[in-house]
User: Fold this.
Amino acid sequence: MKQVNNFSRVTAMTLILTLLGFSAFGQTAAAKAESQKKENELKAYTGTYEFDNEASMGFDIKVWLDDEGTLFAQPSNESQPQAQLSNVSEDKFELLNTGGLIISFKKDEKKKVISLTISEGGQSFTCIKKEDK
Assistant:
């Protein structure tokens, strides 16, 4: 009788561990799919944005994804350090460690990103996205 109980315990434990393994695999696959979707959405923001030279202030900006899929921005002339972008709402990001600078991306009717506006404290400037070559 004791042998059957031990066998039942081992079988039950094996079954539980197997189910946990499949569950973790499913969660990992779902997390990877969600991560890939997020990265594809963020790629739409990447590129070089040119400052409107008719405005009184501003600079060209480069936006990119790093190897972990994190979005960064930096002036093209590297006059300021790169800053990580933290999503605030759809198409709106805070530039971390910059004292509250916000980047808002604008899309056209086809949902293609066409420009960005950097704003802080009532002042802002806009940069137009350069076409990919």
